[in-house]
Design a protein that fits this description.
This is Transposase. This protein has 475 residues and is α/β, with parallel strands linked by helices. It has 18 helices and eight strands.
Length: 475
């Protein structure tokens, strides 16, 4: 055949070792992550944890941090998936310097250093500020439901739990009575069973069965105590808030009366029969997601700056309602950035009398003008224009806020809310595969959400300045 092809020899032996620098093109995300970890991030909280000199040398923390940041940025979050990528994927092999840590090492590192990894969120935010990507003119606050690493079918309602606990207690008592009966004449029974079944044989393993039932009873009792404690705490907070508002209307202040009202309400509190606890992840809760389905989940909160969609605050709560997070999230945003936003856009999920009062106080104290929806609009429904004339003197805070959003500046400002925060959640769910959490417990969920938020910020920085811009910012 006359046609000539380029030389191709799969069995060619490399006479010189390959250079890792030749594996990836310039401007690749993996190069950005490598420079970020090696030069920009402060890993001293991680390194400070290694004080023991004995034992086999562990992997360099920079190696694992590189893999985790790149994995959480590109949607490869499972430790087993990262281990496979260190063999199959050029970018991961580049970051790991052609090493392949096993999934146990990666998973243990993530769990051991979760607080330090979550702290990368603040470092990513400060780096974005240094690059001029955070303006704090207008921010949007919103929440999204993250699926917990637990099945909702492993949850039990309070009413069923009490009934099940009583039945298991009866079973335990029956087994204990049976065990006492068998132990009454232990030597005679042992001799008879040895003769019948042999020295190693057994007819019924009562101690193991009893131990299993007692463990199950302990789980049920712990779940019941958790539900009762949550009901008491909810009643206490509601009573204290009610007493404070009563005193505010009366123009008085008595903190002891507030405490007494809370304690009295907590003592009388009784859980609702449908209140649930999960045996796999007790901190997670049954929540309704945006599709209307009920899932075992955590409520992830975020504050996003308008200029470059940088997350300025991130947290996780176990309460399905967003209303409890308005003040805490905006306070965290101001603390993280060192400044207060000029405008804050929040949806109707945060609307409550307490938050409307807090928004009024925040504007006076910090200058943050809050636009809070007082009700949900239907699909394609437009906000009607504000009525003409002065606002009535007896108008409530909710009525004043509704009228504020119906003004021309109010409609213009609030129309930006979805464009600021919704794309951030969408990109975390799809590009970073962040719809479901891998770690259990509230602390694990919070740490993983902040790591996801940090990687989202770092990806925006990469898109904005690239590797060359990062080097200039570091210099």
């Amino acid at each position: 055949m006359d046609k000539q092809f380029r030389a191709f020899d799969p069995h060619q032996v490399l006479l010189l070792p390959p250079s890792l620098d030749d594996w990836l093109p310039e401007g690749h995300l993996a190069r950005f992550v490598a420079d970020l970890v090696d030069q920009a991030l402060d890993l001293s909280p991680l390194l400070a944890d290694y004080t023991e000199k004995r034992g086999y040398p562990p992997y360099d923390p920079r190696l694992i941090v590189r893999l985790l940041i790149y994995g959480y940025t590109t949607g490869v979050r499972s430790s087993r998936a990262i281990e496979r990528k260190c063999v199959d994927d050029v970018a991961f092999r580049f970051l790991a310097a052609d090493q392949a840590p096993d999934y146990r090492s990666i998973a243990r590192f993530r769990r051991r250093h979760l607080d330090a990894l979550a702290g990368l969120f603040l470092q990513s935010l400060h780096l974005a500020q240094k690059l001029g990507m955070v303006k704090m003119g207008r921010v949007a606050l919103d929440g999204t439901k993250l699926e917990a690493n637990a099945s909702k079918h492993k949850a039990m309602s309070y009413g069923r739990l009490v009934d099940k606990e009583e039945r298991v207690e009866a079973e335990v008592a029956e087994l204990e009575a049976k065990a006492r009966t068998l132990l009454a004449d232990a030597e005679a029974i042992d001799a008879a069973e040895d003769e019948r079944f042999g020295p190693d044989g057994k007819e019924a393993d009562l101690p193991a069965e009893l131990d299993r039932r007692e463990k199950r009873l302990a789980w049920l009792q712990a779940a019941r105590a958790q539900i009762e404690a949550e009901a008491a705490d909810k009643a206490r907070r509601h009573a204290e808030d009610k007493e404070r508002r009563r005193q505010a209307r009366a123009g008085s202040s008595n903190e002891q009366a507030v405490i007494d009202a809370g304690q009295k309400a907590a003592a009388k509190a009784r859980p609702k029969p449908k209140g649930q606890a999960n045996f796999t992840d007790p901190d997670s809760r049954i929540m309704k997601n945006s599709d209307g389905a009920y899932i075992q989940a955590y409520n992830a909160q975020a504050v996003v700056d308008e200029a470059h969609q940088i997350l300025t605050a991130a947290d996780v709560t176990t309460n399905a309602s967003d209303a409890l997070n308005y003040t805490a999230m905006l306070d965290q945003c101001s603390q993280n950035t060192g400044t207060h936003p000029k405008q804050a856009l929040v949806d109707a999920g945060y609307c409550s009398e307490t938050n409307l009062e807090a928004a009024k106080d925040r504007q006076l104290a910090c200058g943050t003008d809050t636009f809070m929806a007082t009700g949900r609009l239907g699909h394609d429904e437009q906000v009607p224009p504000a009525p003409r004339g002065r606002i009535p003197k007896n108008a409530t805070l909710k009525e004043r806020m509704a009228r504020k959003l119906r003004t021309k500046p109010g409609r213009k400002a609030y129309s930006r809310r979805k464009a600021i925060v919704e794309p951030v959640f969408g990109q975390i769910m799809t590009c970073q595969n962040g719809r479901q959490l891998l770690l259990r417990g509230e602390d694990g969920a919070r740490g993983e959400w902040r790591l996801l938020a940090a990687c989202r910020n770092l990806r925006k920085i990469f898109r904005h300045v690239g590797t060359a811009g990062l080097a200039a910012a570091i210099a």
